[in-house]
Amino acid sequence: MLKTYRQPGEKNNGFDVLYHNMKHGQISSKELTDFIRERATIEEVYARSMTKLAKSAGNFSQLGTFAPVWDVFKTSTEKLASCHLELVRKLQELIKDVQKYVDDQAKVHKKTKEEVASTNGAVQTIQTTGVALQKSKENYNAKTVDQERLRKEGATQREVDKAGVKAKKATEAYKGLVEKYATAKSEFEQKMAETAQKFQNIEESHIVHMKDIIQSYAQSVDETHVQIGEVHTEFLGNMENTSVESLIQKLAESKGTGKERPGAKPRKRKTYAFPGQNSFYSSSDSEDEDEPRKFRVEIKPVAPNNGTHQSRATIDELKASIGNISLSPPTTVRQFLDYIYLEFFTLAIYSTLYGVNVLYPLLLVKFPGLCGLSNQVRPFSPPKTLSNASLSLAAPLARAESSSSLSSTASLSASNTPTVGTSRGPSPVTLASQDALPIAVAFTESVNAYFKGADPTKCIVKITGDMTLSFPMGIIKVFTSNPSPAVLTFKLKSTSKLEQILPNQTLLFSDPSQSDTNTKDFWFNMQALTSYLRKASEQNPAASYYNVDILKYQVSSNGIQSTPLNLAVYWKCTPTTTDLRLDYRYNPESMLYPGPLSNVQVLVPVDGEVINMQSLPNAVWNSELNKSLWKLSDISEKSDNEGSGSLRAKFELSDGPSTPTTLAVQFMSEGSTLSGVDMELLGAGYRLSLNKKRFATGMYRTKI
Hints:
alpha+beta, nine-stranded mixed beta sheet, 21 strands, elongated, disordered N terminus, F-BAR domain only protein 2
């Protein structure tokens, strides 16, 4: 029994403290119910909003090449809504379980109140007897002192005898209360010990039950996050598979009016040939499969005006000239691309002859709305320093991209030259009088494993990780005083072992079309980062640095081969003894850079009323919790037997046999991760001052 429950406390008020603590447990259960119910409500509102958003995506315009993309959005959003609705269902089921526990808890408390009523009476008895005893003691002392005073002062014998009678009565009363108090105390201590144990059992059961509820809650949320990640990954895959050509193909298939020229027989399209710069020949449609009919296109430049400066052709003149070239309208994607190629080649010759860049405006003349440049989806690329000549053209586009979406459109400069921005944000800012800003990064991974006996094929492993950046306090002033701070860009390296990456979408951008499976580039929304750090500094102005959660990831695992410490457990249970052996083996292959496992502890619950334990190496037995604990020194390849060993224990029982239970193991490792993932800063303006890596156990369990 714990000391808190064993001691009655000052003025014997321990009973009241323990009783009210039991009642507080019921309050906590109800508050936990309210919390889970509120979370379910939030998830339900969010799910309904996502469902509404999916319906709106289905009602968007079905015209144009972009129309099929809305189906991808609609399907993905519907799946996200389903994920959150499934979480609502799980939480509602959990609420029912918690409510049942609250009801059962109330019954237990009512029964306990009846059972400890006698203890409450014993408490009241000892309290009232104690008060009476104190008063009797004070009266006894007063009468005795009074008798002695009269004797010393030479009072008459009658006065002395009278005082003696009073002193004798006080003595007898005091003696009687002392005996009564001793009896009350003995009864109180006996009943209080039994009641305190009862209260402790109730409280331990309550805490275990509450932890089980929280574990179920956390598992439901975690499963939902995994499902959401899968939906997100599927969405990215669908978008990567939605190419420009496939969208144009769908448009041609859905809007095409036929595959043949009206009033003509089927013709065969031949390969184009380009013999020279001033003219070109193109095979055209022919009724004869073997002898194609050709046509000749001649380009006659407009005669220059008389004057000191050569005049340039106007757009109208070019439109008039190019309008005389007539080609068959395209009916398939291949013909469409050939068509554009011919038109583009013709315009290039015009550019050469007249010295003006007319390609883009004349493509708009020939193909208004379908030329590809105005609607092309362009993935972001890392920010590049732009020259002075191009900065004024690309910067406005870059600013729009950094605050809106992951696509862009072409824009026309004043000289009618198409300029397609390639920056994902403002160009990096060079801090002329300041050093590069220091940034620290930390990778923290959690390995969860469940070993089944000694069978390695039944080992279940899940490894997750977090990436956190730390910013010094002084960086906030730099960001807030500079309207365009350098874009913080980094490369996540060695990502081939990552199954899933979930970036902080509020702060980070990334390019979903990156093809390198071993790296992934990210860059910050600097406005959002500045706002986040400013808010953090306002909440905690005394902090010297601020940590920001950047992304979470899940590491692909290969069963027991991915665990840093392999486990196998063996139990032998009889009515009088329990033999336990836990074999362990350090597994350097699970780590890219093997490091020692520190703070290794093994906790083993054993029931059956253990009366004696023998263990090798020595373990500590906790009789109150019925658990044995091993604390081991660091385990590595340099340890004995290259990090392999066994824990053995023999438990003698008074109420066996024991039931094999789940063993819990914990350890940690500094300086390395299981995934091998790393980070590299890109661009100028920042430097990496610290790169910290560690991993530790989450739920690391083994059972026979």
